[in-house]
Amino acid sequence: MNRIQKTFGSLKEKNEKALVGFVTAGDPNISQSLEIIKAMCKAGLDILELGIPFSDPTADGPVIQRSSGRAIAGGMTLKIALDMTRQIRQESDIPIILFSYYNPIHAYGNKAFYEDAVSSGADGVLIVDLPPEESDEMTNTWSGKELSLIRLIAPTTPVARMKSIADSASGFLYLVSKTGVTGSDGLNTGDVGTHIRTLRSVARLPICVGFGISTAEDVASVA
């Protein structure tokens, strides 16, 4: 049983929900970024999403766009983010998900990325802009299944495709709460509840909800 499975299993036994936190690696700089991550882990975060900065983050709103820009300007790269993952792993057993666009991974090399991600202590990867139909080129180079492949499911995804995506995923499913980019307003918790129930009817993996969740009230209503 890997760290992701252990975390969700423990939460289920306690009838609790997972708190998943995102932070851009290297913002505002590498050392402060590490301190922020360590503080998040100590504060009770259940799963860490470590964002790999990218110059064209099309799924992200202005806050994460600016965050990525600062990190890149400060010299952050995928290799350094993996080094950060190793440092985090030395101090915490929290599941770490590498949250990335595909371009940095492709440039790094699919096989090398898998090997270095696993050796760094990462538990999974979520690639924002890589649909299942185009992921074989990447996963066929992987030498094992030690890295969970988290899949995104949009609120507009048809039920049959939900099932197909869920069947190709591992770790958990990331349900996008609404159309639009990260940080956008207009969360409709009633719609989110409907999407969760629909996805639950065709998927066995745990479901996490993201995009547009910015307040404690949002978290409570979605949970």
- CATH H-level superfamily title: Aldolase class I
Q: Under the CATH scheme, which class? A: Alpha Beta
Tell me the number of helical segments per DSSP (H or I, 4 or more residues long). 10
**For the CA atoms, what is the radius of gyration?**
16 Å
Strand order of the largest sheet: 1-2-3-4-5-6-7
Biggest sheet features: 7 strands, parallel
Class computed from helices, strands and strand pairing: alpha/beta
> Architecture, CATH level 2?
Alpha-Beta Barrel
User: Would you count the extended β strands for me?
Assistant: 7
**What share of residues is helical?**
40-55%
Query: In total, how many domains does the architecture comprise?
Result: 1
> β content, as a range?
5-15%
Distance between the termini: 25 Å
Low-confidence stretches: none
> Any idea of the CATH topology?
TIM Barrel
Write down the overall geometry.
globular
Rounded average pLDDT: 90
Account of the protein in words:
The chain is α/β, with parallel strands linked by helices and 223 residues long. The protein has one domain: Aldolase class I (TIM Barrel), CATH 3.20.20.70. Helices cover 45% and strands 15% of the residues. It is built from ten helices and seven strands. The chain has a seven-stranded parallel beta sheet with strand order 1-2-3-4-5-6-7. Helix 2 runs parallel beside helix 4. It starts with a helix and ends with a helix.
